[in-house]
Amino acid sequence: MWVRPLPRRPLAYSARAAAFAVLEAVESRGGSSNTLLAEIDLPDDRERHLATSLVYGVLRQRRALDRLVEKTSNRPLSEVDTPTLIALRLALFQILFLTRVPRAAAVDEAVSLVRARRGRGAAAFANGILRSVCRWLDTGLDPVTLLPDETLDTALFLAETYSFPRDLVERYLVRFGRQECEILLDTLNRPAPIVLRPGRRAGSPEALVRRLQDEGIEVVPSPLLPGALRVVRGAPQHTRTFRDGLVYIQDEAAQIVTLLLLPIEPEGGLLDLCAAPGGKFLAAAETLPPGTRMVATDVSAARLRLIGDNALRLGITGIHKVVTDAARPGLRGDFGRVLLDAPCSGTGVIRRHPEIRWRRSREDISVATGVQAKALMAAAELLSPSGHLVYSVCSLEPEEGPERIDEVLRERKDLEVVDARSILPPALHRLVDETGFLSTLPHRDDVDGFFAAVLRKT
């Protein structure tokens, strides 16, 4: 979903006020937390880091914070207006999890935010809640005592402990079992690593690392994918190295999906049916000579423009951009390589988008699978004989992964599975399951959760 960016604010705009604005946009307008955070204007890295920590922390711990509001409030949670509830969550997160932040500062700013948005009465209510929680904590009581009894309801206990909707926890209990489910939930509440993919103009690995170091960015080699770099310190998106197109920020799992497209024969061309913002498509395009047919499509013109911006930064030309629906693309021609990075639930990237957990229901997943099925059939029609179709989703849900491939294989007898191990280097074979599908898991591989399959047209 494309969301209008937050308006630029004066430099005096505080981290807490910025976090409040982002959380309100996430809650009320369905915004993306990381997109909105990129739009805020704060005076220095310290303030930006605090705002980011507050936003992600509140989204990850939302249920635990709401339990405290429920414990100390004289009204049901459903009757607390959204701006007041967001301000309470912000303050409570700081009180519980950011020990360096003085309680008084967290409380005072939260009350001020509520007063400015909802008036004196709401401010008095918020102040009473926060003072009550502080007194409650001062008595030595532990918030853990508010958790339900696991022996009575394991799914509810894990949902409340790790701040996840019960239905997702139930799905993961069935799939992974009690112990692995808890490890997964704990992992999804931790920040994901920032990973850099060197561009084709990056030069030698040693020179790139030195250049990043000169700009205050400390990196280490990826433990999984040769050539990729994990950021240990710094914000690479604010560097000249990034602006000059020498690196692209992209998780290892997404980079591996691109490898499944290779090698690409120039005469066969490359089509990406859900391309924006273009990371996988552009990584593949960097391997192609000038004049190769490269078509990138997306249903959103605004998002498709991001591909143009990123291509310009990376020095890639010759891309044909088409606004169209992947389920009904309206294109003609055969392509040797087709990428369908399909719209999905996004449960594999909850570490990067913690609000996803609160937005996905069984119905949402069902709707997504319908779109994926139609897009897969459309993609197959655009594939040349012997061409490869790479289908991928950043989802942990089997309905969006192997079940979609099983369905298309039943309907299209001219498609067959290509074992991903026949394409990927041996070091990555452990990420491929017994059916030949790429499957990455955050708690097992410390990368985004992806499913990908390669299909060949016979």
Sum this structure up briefly.
With 458 residues, the protein is of the alpha/beta class. The chain is built from 18 helices and twelve strands. The protein folds into four domains: 130 residues, NusB-like (N-utilizing Substance Protein B Homolog, Chain A, Orthogonal Bundle), CATH 1.10.940.10; 41 residues; 55 residues, 2-Layer Sandwich (Alpha-Beta Plaits), CATH 3.30.70.1170; 206 residues, 3-Layer(aba) Sandwich (Rossmann fold), CATH 3.40.50.150.
Protein described:
The protein is of the alpha/beta class. It folds into four domains: 15-144, NusB-like (N-utilizing Substance Protein B Homolog, Chain A), CATH 1.10.940.10; 148-188; 195-249, Sun protein, domain 3 (Alpha-Beta Plaits, 2-Layer Sandwich), CATH 3.30.70.1170; 252-457, Rossmann fold (3-Layer(aba) Sandwich). The chain is 45% helix and 14% strand. It has 18 helices and twelve strands. The chain has helices at residues 15-29, 33-39, 45-60, 62-72, 82-97, 103-118, 120-138, 154-162, 166-176, 178-188, 205-214, 240-243, 252-259, 279-285, 301-314, 362-381, 402-411, 442-445, and strands spanning 195-198, 218-221, 229-233, 247-249, 270-272, 294-298, 319-323, 335-341, 383-393, 415-418, 438-440, 450-457. The radius of gyration is 24 Å and the shape is globular. Mean pLDDT is 93; it is low at 1-12.
By CATH reckoning, the class of the largest domain would read Alpha Beta
List low-pLDDT spans. Answer: 1-12
Shape: globular
CATH topology of the largest domain: Rossmann fold
